[in-house]
Design a protein that fits this description.
A three-stranded parallel sheet has the order 1-2-3, with helices on one face. The chain is α/β, with parallel strands linked by helices. Strand 1 (about 75-80), helix 6 and strand 2 form a beta-alpha-beta unit. The chain is built from seven helices and three strands; from the N terminus they run H-H-H-H-H-E-H-E-H-E. The protein is about 45% helix and about 10% strand. The protein has one domain.
Length: about 120
Amino acid sequence: MAYAWDDPASALPKAADWQAQIAAVAHRFDQEFSGKPFDLPEEVEAMSLFQDWTAGSLQAKIASPFWEIAKPQKNQRCLDIGCGLSFLVYPWRDWQALFHGQDISPFVRDVIASRGPAQFQAV
C-alpha cells in the first residue's frame, strides 16, 4: 500500500497553495463576522451540521463554556485559538487571567484590538 508521505514530491501542497487556502478561509470568516453573505458548496449547506448552525441550534449541542471546565485563575495564561468574537464575551478581566486569542480573520482582529488590552494575534 502506498501512502502520500511515501512520495515527498506529493506529500504536501506547496506553500503558495496553503496561502491561497488560508486566504479563502479568512475571507469566509470575515464575511460571516461582518454580517455579509458568503457562499458555501451545496454539499456543505445540505449537511445537518450546517442546518443546525443556521437554525441557531448547533451551539447547545456541541459547546460548553470553557470557563466552567478550565476555571481560569488569577495570572493564569490562557490561549484561545480560533477565538472569533467570543473572545469579547469572556469575563477575563473579572478572572484576572491573562488571555491570548488567535484568529484567522482580520475583521475579528480589528474588532478585538479596538476594544481592549487583550493579547490577540491574527494568522
